Amino acid sequence: MLRTCTYLFALLLIGATWVTASPVVAQTTAPEAGEEAAPPASVPEDPLGRTTPRGAFSGYIHAMAEESYDEAAEYLDLSGLPRRIARQGGAEIARRLRIALDQGGDVQPSVALSDQPEGKLNDGLAPRMERIGSVTLQGEVVPLYLERTEETDEPLWRVSSETLKYLPETLDENLHTTVDQLLPSVLIQRKWQGVPIGHWLAMVLLAILAYVISRLVVAAVIGGARRLLRRRFPNYPTGLVQAFGQPIRVYLAVMLFVAAAQRAGISIIVRQYFSQVTVLVAWFAILLLAWRLIDVIASALLTRTTRRANMGALSAILFFRRSIKVLLVALGVISVLDMIGFDVTTGLAALGIGGIAIALGAQKTVENLVGGLSLIFDQPVRVGDFCKIGDIVGTVEQIGMRSTRIRTLDRTMVVIPNGDLSSRVIENYAHRDRFWFHPALGLRYETTPDQIRYLLVEIRSMLYAHPRVDPDPARVRFTGFGAVSVNLEVFAYVLAKDYDDFLEIQEDLYLRIADIVRESGTGFAFPSQTVYLASDSGRSDSKSREAEEKVNQWREAGDMPLPKFEPERVDKLKGSIGYPPPGSSSAKR
Description:
This is MscS family membrane protein. The chain has helices spanning 2-21, 53-65, 69-73, 83-86, 90-104, 161-164, 178-182, 185-189, 197-232, 238-263, 268-307, 311-339, 344-361, 363-378, 418-421, 449-465, 499-519, 541-557, 567-573; strands at 105-107, 129-137, 140-151, 154-159, 191-192, 195-196, 386-389, 392-399, 403-408, 413-417, 426-428, 435-437, 440-443, 469-481, 486-494. The chain has a 5-stranded antiparallel beta sheet with strand order 10-9-8-7-11. Strands 1-2-3-4 form a 4-stranded antiparallel beta sheet. It has 3 domains: 43-175, Nuclear Transport Factor 2, Chain: A; 197-363; 435-588, Alpha-Beta Plaits. The radius of gyration is 45 Å and the shape is rod-shaped. It is α+β, with helices and mostly antiparallel strands.
């Protein structure tokens, strides 16, 4: 993916170089005779493109490349110049300015110049002034200004007289720059675009040399950084340092290339034609660094997520990594198109409309993606949780970006779209701190009130005494008379770590309740009608008398724990029952 995107971006840079390096596009051409005039705009169009700072200086460079000094003079503000300079004539001043820029000029890349008629209003200069670089004249660095002048109500940008007045009366035209001293005469005499061919070849050699030097420097720095980090931080992400390698190599090569071209005295025409490419390559280095950092951060997060077996977060990380990379590539393409002069506003508006259309067409897919993200971040369920979703009961096996898979108790696999899942009622059993124990006991109608009182006290005492039952709240109540039974309701919470543990404790509680019911002398009612054809044992009179006597003892002593137990009695009963019960194999452990 990275290699593909790199190739595409490189092709885009080559295309940008071809478009921007052509002198034709550096200047707005005048309409030919017979062509219909364009509708009037708020700012009149200038045939020489001087309505913006970018157009003005690009036009001057184009005129210099054509060695058309009379045309180049149209880009200079010759008003207010000292007589010693003005008498030289506009064409000669334009030529001398070029020589000065070749020998010691530093001009901003053309893409950095304002393409607005009003220029940059936040640079701290007067609204009519624009600083675009500097030029060294007689050992003094002079700011290179463009100034907006108005002629016949048409604001035009020209090289300011505030800069031109510093031009000396004579320039040493025989002063050879470093590149001229190194090149053979044949490469200096033959010209292309008004510049010796040797200057163009020198730029290519400087680019190669700058990259070789930056590669060696960065390799040494990265090697030292790796050894230092390995000693200080043994577990540091190994790809972190590597991520900075290639982007820094490219960016450093651009900086070395620009500085070397200026110091070597490469013609300002060549440097300006290459300036846009250098800015694009620098942008590419920054975007490449962001791309690498995204990979490093995502890899670290993936490692942690895999270690925790969080498959849902794993899908989210992969999704966000792809999405951020797509946005990064889109940002890079838009920036490149904007730098080479395309109006991206209309394109962005079209993309916005297209995005809305795509979103409407893929509404369900987007809904599932959003639902998947909400499941991952809110985490109502996790992989391995036993839960109930609607009427589906099972264990969550996978949470993806589009759907969630649940293994039911029948061992079938149910796939639920995340958009549908996020709108359902989810009951998660996996993270319960306590389990609800609430059986309803139906007793025979022959059960006497004192037997009911006996059961209420003894069952409640058993719940309070059980070490795995939470005594607050734990209650047993006589809830009424049913069609075939008198009903008691038990309410308590069991302290269990999972459902299997709860079933084990619940089994013990049921057996203890059955023992208490048997000891009370009554029994559980059957959901049927009993027809007495002969005498049977029925209820136990002796047991009934014992229960009644015990209740009478409570009543006479004023110690009947109804309707509720006193806190002191509850504290006395807590943990007094042995669990697991005597005789159980678990009690031996």
